[in-house]
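Re: the 555-residue chain
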Amino acid sequence: MDSKVAAPEGSGSGKAFPKGVKQNNRIPIRKSMIARLKLLDCQRSLSQSFQQSADLYLGRLPNPLKKYSFAYFQELRSYRKISHKSNILKEICGAQIVLFGDYHSLSQAQRTVMRILREIVPKLKKEKKPLYLGLEALRVQDNIRTQQYLRKEISESKFLKSAAFEDWGFNWQNYAPLFDMAQQWEIPIIGLSPNRSSSPETRDKYGAKILSNWTEEHPDSLLLALIGDFHLAQNHLPTKIKEELNSRELKRKVLTIHQNSDSLYWKVAHRVQGKPAEVLQLKKDVYCILNTAPWVKMQSYLSWMENLYSESFDPSSEIATLLKAMAQFLELEEPQALLSQFELKYDQFSTLCKELRRNKGLSFYQRKALEIKLKNSQYLLLRTHSQMYLTSSNLNHLSSLSGQYLHAQLSGLKVLLEDPEKDFYHLVWVEALGYFGSKIINPKRKCKGIKDFKNSRDPVEQKVFRHVELERKFRSAFQEKPLDLSCRTYPVAKLLGKLLGEGIFELMIRNQVSFIEIQELFRNPFNRNPVKQYLQWVRRLDKTGVRDFSFRDQL
């Protein structure tokens, strides 16, 4: 199967709402559920929109792949019980082979494996249990060059060329952090594929032999394999592994972990009590992690396809879709035209910097400040001209930019905010509302909490925690005792804004903040004492403890 023309495994061209989940599913409405149900309606609309766009690219799956994928979709229609992060970590540490599902175009799929590794590596080192990482993205013939790259004996460009990674078809930047982590922790990486064009069935047989060979040679080790989700249907790769192990009279615990099944997502999304489940157990030794919404997966695929085949990819239509979804969710009555008066510039960072330099209305200082913001966030809103600058088509970036634009249009805020010392709390609010908007689009988006900042060694995050300490210590006297100006930087404002946006969103989901209050925030230019308004809100958030969390609490 040529990876350059195939969809990421686990996508398919199925409907946004699988069998058993009705699109007009009616749940008895309680006051405490209003926000969650409105969010669910918004999610349905987004799924329909992205699914329609994806169908234009995908069409019908080729018959061989359709037949191969059938077992996967059948298997992921139901689950045994809701599990927990701690349970799946315990299972992983007790296994010898762990098969991790990979949606190739979705960076979250690879980051989830990194989060798992951060949790288990200290325990495995303590137990002196060797760890190996297997990737479908690499061929077995790439193993020597891979180890040379991990030992920093060859450059990244030489490694990618020798491994023909471009022929894999998917974004190296999604996988590069895994290699960085393997370098740091000295985790060997092995290839699992015979070649780029072999059939799924051939890959299953070949992968089973590679994994069985490895566990036979290293019986006390843990081998974690990241491979396309279709392969993880039980009668595909897992069965081939069991057959190989049985033929060698080897007993090994083989764990299968799917990621982000669409059908299972919609099943648990309709739960009316508690937070949506993040880990499901399908049956013995088979789990599914749910930390990304179906339309986020689909958008990553669409973006990948557009970048792969279009010479002039323009995400303007996606931004228009996101703005429409936000306006619908917030019940805004403003005319749609008000939300479509933007000009998008989507290109590489260096090219967009040249665009800023050509803007004669900006001073040298302003351009430098805006370039720093663009580099830090990969997006920038030039409010004075309703211009959007974007270097990444990541959905979180698109939706954060859309949220900031929505606020600018509704509030009339048309200033640059280029001076972090002077505009610090304006920046915090702009980042908060941009992040809030992105949570409407991707409710499973994560940010760092106060617990993370407290234990961080990063200088910026330490400044964020110092700010939190001061705002809690001085409360009403905070305005008369201004924070050390060294803390008033854009990176600090960005992190504080995300934390504020996360807290407000959580209170809204709990129905402790009204939609009228949210609308007022988006219409507020914060020209009158933004620090006072910030302190009022964080005091409200801290009464419920919604900022006192760690992003490591979830997968």
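The radius of gyration is 24 Å.
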